[in-house]
Amino acid sequence: MEFLLNERSLYGQFHSAQDFLESLKPVIRCIKIIHDCSDLGIYKITNFHDCKITKDQNLGNLKLGGVSDELLRFKLSLDREVYKEPYWDRMPEHDLSQDFMWEDENVSATSLAEAAVTGNSLLSFQSDRFNDRMLTLNNDKMTYLVDSIHTPKYLLEQYYDSIHPDRKRILLIRYEGTRIDFSTLEDEYGVLILEKNEFAELLSTLDKFVQHESWESIGRDDGLEYKKYSPSSVKENWFRGARYQGKTIMKFRFSRVLRCYGYRKGDKFRVLRFERDHKISNYG
Question: Which strands sit side by side in the sheet containing 268-275, from one edge to the other?
Answer without folding.
Answer: 180-181, 268-275, 259-265, 249-253, 227-228
